Amino acid sequence: MTRETLLKIDGISKSYPGVKANEDVSFSIGVGEVHALLGENGAGKSTLVKMIYGLVKPDEGTLTFRGKPFAPSEPSEARAAGVAMVFQHFSLFEALNVAENVALGMENPPPMRELAARIRAVSEEYGLPLDPARMVGDLSAGERQRVEIIRCLLQDPKLLIMDEPTSVLTPQEVEILFKTLRQLSSEGTAILYISHKLEEIRTLCDGATILRRGKVVGSCVPRETTAREMAELMVGATLTPPERRAGAKGEVVLGVTDLSAASPIPFGTTLKGISFTVARGEVLGIAGVAGNGQDELLLALSGELRVASDKIRINGRAAGDLGPGERRRAGLVAAPEDRYGHAAAPDMSLVENALLTGAIRRNLTHRGFIDWAATRGFAEEVIQTYDVRTPGSHVAARALSGGNLQKFLIGRELDQSPEVIVINQPTWGVDAAAAAAIRQAILNRAAEGAGVVVISQDLDELLEIADMFAVLNEGRLTKPRPVEGLTIDQIGLMMGGAHGMEVAHHVEA
Amino acid sequence: MDIGGINPVILVASLMVAAVPIMLAALGELVVEKSGVLNLGVEGMMIVGAICGFIAAVGTQSPVAGFAAGAAGGAVLSLVFAFLTQVMLANQVATGLALTLFGLGLSSLMGQGYNGIKPPVTAKVPFGPLAEIPVLGPIVFGHDWMVYASIALVACVWWVLRATRLGLIIRAVGESHEAAHALGYKVNRIRLGCIAFGGAMAGLGGAYVSLVRVPQWVDGITAGAGWIALAIVVFASWRPWRVLIGAYLFGGISVLQLNLQAAGSGIPVEYLSMSPYLVTIVVLVIMSSGRGRASLNAPASLGQNFHAAR
Amino acid sequence: MLRLEKRPIPSRFWLYATPVVAVLLTMIAGGLLFALLGKNPATVIKTIFWDPLFGEFAWYLRGQLLVKAGPLILIAIGLSLGFRAGIWNIGAEGQYIMGAICGAGVGLALYPTESRLIFPVMILAGALGGWAWAMIPAILKTRFNTNEILVSLMLVYVAETILAKASTGFLRNPEGAGFPGSRSFSGSSFPAASNPELIAGSGLHWGGVFALLMGVAAYILLQRHILGFQIKLAGQAPRAARFHGVKPERLVLLCMGLSGALAGLAGMFEVTGPAGKISIDFNVGYGFTAIIVAFLGRLNPLGIVLAGFIMALTYVGGEMAATNLGLPSAAIQVFQGMLLFFLLGVDVLTNFRIRTTLLGVK
After folding, report:
1. Where do transmembrane segments lie in this chain (chain B) (predicted)?
2. Does the residue B308 lie in any domain?
3. Looking at the domain assignment, is residue B94 inside a domain?
4. Residuewise pLDDT in 10s, chain B (310 residues)
């Protein structure tokens, strides 16, 4: 099938100090084509897309859109030309309602009442139910994405850019999204689909361009290529799955009973009656779509959010009312999702960040006075053991790449001989090699007898490393089940299906 | 109809006048904070507005020129803040404080030689016989034009924030500067405009103090009104009409305590004169705690600087 | 076109260079201001920055430097701890006044007893007075989430009215023929409660001693102690601080209390020493100037000691310029304000690089 070319990208280069984000990138997208842009974190996908959307100017190269030279200097120009974008994060306003959010993304929005009517109409047409008057902060992740999509659709885009759209969706929601995207494609809207999830790309996309370190390393027709081939193009190396040593399960080290807690985060999720146990040597994987209580669960387990003492037991000892320091003393270490500002202080050095959680279990203070030599030793030990690429331990945390900082932060927790490990999103935004190393390190600790809780939105990751599997849904946790023998359909049901969307799709189906 | 030596009609009429400076300053600061910027320099901008307005009014013998100069003075000073926080990315709290310290010094320097001079009188709006109506006359029809203008400005700000695209963009920038930037809005430029507006309003309020409220020039003439204006923004939970209520409330307290002092009530003068500040604290406590959590209404990006990294 | 670019690591050079650059820029801008006022800029700058140190009357003025620097350093050290933790105590002036009233009040209550214990008790009372005044915003913040900036500032105005009441009412000198102001602490009138110059001509009194001691103590706290680490952490990354195990409420109480106590101490030393008695205007705004000192010293205790002396120089030299050259005293206030502006502005260089990109060139 030959298509008329919609967007032609020719020899685009862009560099930042120290990094070549894009180097001589060329490919083209046809009218109505669903084109995948594939690559690891840091491969230069976002930079490329921002150039098409007018947020960043290329250093070299040209864009041609609908046969005309295209060099948008700001997003409004790109939008006027017919380019729309659904962002992965950072483009919705929680304290504004749906209609206001939509209006902000449009060039000449109609009056609010008319806009609300159009939002209803479009959401009906594409099976994406949405109430224009609702506050965005109260919406689920999937619903928030609908806001973004509808914002784009209202402008009749010729090209729709979607940045990692499925990372926040349940499997059922993904299916509905794909249906919408196919409908758009059949109506002639091209879609530039950014992802690193290979199976999705194989089911949805007509063509794919693969980026590695800012360069195009290949292109393919996804339907005719195996996921493994694409992965190896993307990573540039052969991947080995982590090694599992089946250790015998020991006694229970972490017990959570009927844990309920209101969220300290604005627009957060309340935890409702969560119960589970983790034994020595066991890895419990907790799945769920973002915003279903993951952050709150981590806060409650790390001790930042305190509950009644008997709700959480570490090694049989009531620990619910203990703070983070006391829980570390009791043997529990935790690694929050947000690296820049929660797990680490971005402007502090790696040595200081080592002290941040290591002070107690590594005996880095004496009567409150800090032993800086020992702390530096600890930081350097972590850097070495976990292969953290950094000029030294004096470097500020924010200067490290996401993957390297994550290796440091996970290593910092694992090297405190913990008995219970709680990690939220261990490999989020981390390149494949680092992710594999992190998973292996976690499994090694479990094999040595620690009980591990991994909270993640990456199902593949959980199925790879967890023994037991449970799902967080609107602040409730399903009963943990053994991973062996679980099917994707069962997992989808555990995840609570698609939030209120089953009904909606009948309209156009 | 006097109560304890105080005439309630005159009290209400004069509290409307007393409320004008803090209402204007608070309204300006509300817009600034809605855009996500915390400018603690209100006191400094007010007092610079007060002296600029005073000098211009005395020089031209025109109150209108005085108010214009007051607004201009406040706006110019606010641009220093805007430059430091939006371009040089300086800490907003520290810069706001610097603005106040600088403004107090600058006003006193500019005001040398202006002590003891009377500014031209800002005339009352001639409502003719309407002003003679008992009770209603002095309260509704007995004021100078700035009193009416300040109420109109409240309505105007309310309308802009609520119903216009500009207002929507200001709120969006204050809510999440990253998201606004991703959609292509010039975060720092929008904030710069809001800061300048806030400065002009504070300057206008300051000019009203030196031209109408007092009316003469003395060092430190604003006496903490700028800080009270900041508190009123919190009291108002970032809503324009509540700024009006808050300003009337505080205007009422300051007029009442002055009247009580004059009426020779048994309460010591010192306790009366500290009452507006104590009431401010009490109101802040009530608004920040419990169900009336004002903080929930606060713009999410308040006080954070924005730098587009890539 | 100029563009800012975040540095991977804060520049150590600019960390130390910014205060120097800021002082130089302030001299230039201040010179312009003085020229506008019809004074010879070079003479004024020399009078402010050179004469107190090396001029004709330096033997006297050098002592005055320590007199002014003492309270500024003492207050700024306390404030800097809070500022580092993101806790904004802006009401040091009020705590300074309350410390003075409490310290002096205890002393006056014991008049005319002569005992070596009186002065230490007054020191304690002064610290307690400042501490208690600072605890009001602290407790309101921890209990009701009330903004500490506004509350601590409102309390300055309240403290000022209490001071007025004290000097005309409850602390007024009964033998003062009805004039406002308390009994004098200076000289021989009440030796047990007096805070005299310790070495003649040095300007050093107990306040200066405390200021230098606190500078060292704060330095050790921030560099070596886990509490200092927690203070820095809470300011830079509040969520990481909670994750570390800091209780934000505790930190607020601690930092506010400490800065209040130090401000109270400063007030007490001032009123028993250089000021000599409680009077309606014995406070000259040290509580506010100390904010500038804290930033000029980069919130670093040793830097603050240095900054305290620089600021004292502007006070002492400013007075000289006022008497000798007729420079309005408000001009010095403007000068100090400009110093803070320049400091905050130049500070960007510590964390950012300025890149020049010529238009049209890639």
Report:
1. 6-25, 37-58, 64-84, 96-114, 145-161, 192-211, 217-236, 243-263, 269-287
2. no
3. yes
4. 566 667 888 888 889 999 999 999 999 999 999 999 999 999 999 999 999 999 999 999 999 999 999 999 999 999 999 999 998 888 898 899 899 999 999 999 999 889 889 999 888 888 888 888 888 878 888 889 999 999 999 999 999 999 999 999 999 999 999 899 988 899 999 999 999 999 999 999 999 999 999 899 999 999 889 999 999 998 888 999 999 999 999 889 888 888 888 877 777 888 888 888 998 899 888 887 754 444 557 788 887 887 765 4
Number of A/B CB contacts below 8 angstroms equals: 55
Instruction: Please tell me whether the peptide bond between C112 and the residue prior to it is cis, using omega within 30 degrees of 0.
Output: yes
Q: CA-nearest residue of chain A to C236?
A: A345
**DSSP codes of every residue in A133-190:** TSBGGGS-HHHHHHHHHHHHHTT--SEEEEESGGGGS-HHHHHHHHHHHHHHHHTT-E
For the CA atoms of A145, A148, A149, A151, the dihedral, rounded to the nearest 10 degrees, stands at: 150
Candidates A76, A95, A100; nearest CB to B184 = A76
The stretch A250-275 carries a mean pLDDT of 91
Contacts with B, A 30-49, CB within 8 Å = 47
Which of A188-202, A351-365, C21-35 has the weakest average pLDDT? A188-202
Facing residue for C140 by CB, picked from B227, B277, B285: B285
> Which helix (H) or strand (E) element contains residue A69?
strand A68-69
Please check whether residue C362 lies inside any domain of the structure: no
Contact at 8 Å (CB) between B35 and B174?
Answer: yes
Residue range A252-494, CATH number: 3.40.50.300
Q: C-chain residues within 8 Å CB-CB of B281?
A: 136, 140, 146, 150-151, 154-155
Query: Can you name the CATH fold of A5-235?
Result: Rossmann fold (3.40.50)
**Domain ranges across chain A:** 5-235, 252-494
Per the structure, the count of domains in chain C is: 1
Q: What does the longest C-alpha to C-alpha distance in chain C come to?
A: 81
Q: Do A357 and C243 touch (CB under 8 A)?
A: yes
pLDDT band at A213 (very low <50, low <70, confident <90, very high): confident
Q: Is residue C180 part of a domain?
A: yes
Scanning every residue of chain A, which has its alpha carbon at the shortest distance from the alpha carbon of C233? A345
- Looking at the domain assignment, is residue B303 inside a domain? no
Tell me if chain B has a CB within 8 Å of the CB of C291: yes
B184 to chain A: closest CA residue: A75
Q: Which residue of A has its CA nearest to B170?
A: A104
Distance between C237 CA and the closest CA of chain A, angstroms? 5
Using an 8 Å Cβ cutoff, are B26 and B233 in contact?
A: yes
Q: Does C280 touch chain B (CB under 8 A)?
A: no
**What's at C169, amino acid-wise?**
G
Is the ipTM, as predicted for this complex, more than 0.90?
no
Domain count across chain B: 1
What CATH code is carried by the domain that includes residue C196? 1.10.3470
Q: Would you call C245 and A323 a contact, using CB atoms and an 8 Å cutoff?
A: yes
How close A9 gets to chain C, by Cα (Å)? 19
**B48 vs chain A: nearest CA distance in angstroms?**
35
Q: What token pair was written down for C189?
A: 């009138």
Size of interface B-C (CB pairs under 8 A): 136
> Does C206 touch chain B if contact means CB atoms closer than 8 Å?
no
Helix (H) or strand (E) holding A462: helix A459-465
**What's the average model confidence in pLDDT over A385-399?**
89
Q: Which residues form the domain of C291?
A: 57-312
- Map residue A22 onto helix, strand or coil: strand
Confirm whether C145 is domain-assigned. yes
pLDDT band at A504 (very low <50, low <70, confident <90, very high): very low
Cα(C14)–Cα(A335) distance, integer angstroms: 34
Question: How many Å lie between the alpha carbon of C194 and the closest alpha carbon of chain A?
Answer: 37
CATH number at residue B145: 1.10.3470
Distance CA A449, CA A85 (A): 47
Residues of the domain holding B175: 12-297
